[in-house]
Amino acid sequence: MYTAIGSRVTVAIGVLAICLAAISPDGTWAAEPVKQAKKAKKPAQVRTSALAPNTAVPKFASAETAGKAESCFGEAPTLDWLTPDEGKAGDKVTITGTNFGEATCLRGVSFGPGHPAQFQQTNNSITTIVPSNGKKGLVLLTVTTASGENSKPFLVK
């Protein structure tokens, strides 16, 4: 009886050793000290951020007008209902809810992980179309804003 448990422990330790070997640098084992690479002295590098030539930068006349600028942070969106709550690729879906924020603050709508959809936002609703490359079955329709995300189940036929 101890032999069966002993072999399980041996297998578990062997798997652990293989995992450690796969993630340790330079192929060293966890029991060996990690070799330190010699670092050559290089001059300090300064990182600068340059805007793309066609990027629009908001300009403010004063601190007062800058304080009134649009803010994308607040409460996470709330999804009240989906109309309809099921459909096939190409069908139009209306998402009704609150806290979607300004149109520029809405980050995305997706039908399951990795299946983004095109959308159009108006006041407290978002209109989207079920993507053709998505998975069929029950998925989570997710609305993502700068403040968070929320989901409702949706059946893709």
Could you say how many structural domains there are in total?
2
Q: Overall pLDDT, averaged?
A: 73
Counting DSSP H or I runs of 4 or more residues, the number of helices is 2
The strand line-up of the biggest sheet is 2-9-8-4-5
**CATH topology heading of the largest domain:** Immunoglobulin-like
End-to-end separation in angstroms reads 52 Å
Structural class estimated from helices and strands: alpha+beta
Folded structure, characterized:
- The chain has 2 domains: 31 residues; 79 residues, Immunoglobulin-like (Sandwich), CATH 2.60.40.10.
- Helix content is 17%, strand content 32%.
- It is built from 2 helices and 9 strands; from the N terminus they run H-H-E-E-E-E-E-E-E-E-E.
- The strands form 2 sheets. Strands 2-9-8-4-5 form a 5-stranded mixed beta sheet, with no helix packed on it. It has a 4-stranded antiparallel beta sheet with strand order 1-3-7-6, with no helix packed on it.
- Strand 4 and strand 5 form a beta hairpin.
- The chain is elongated and about 55 Å long.
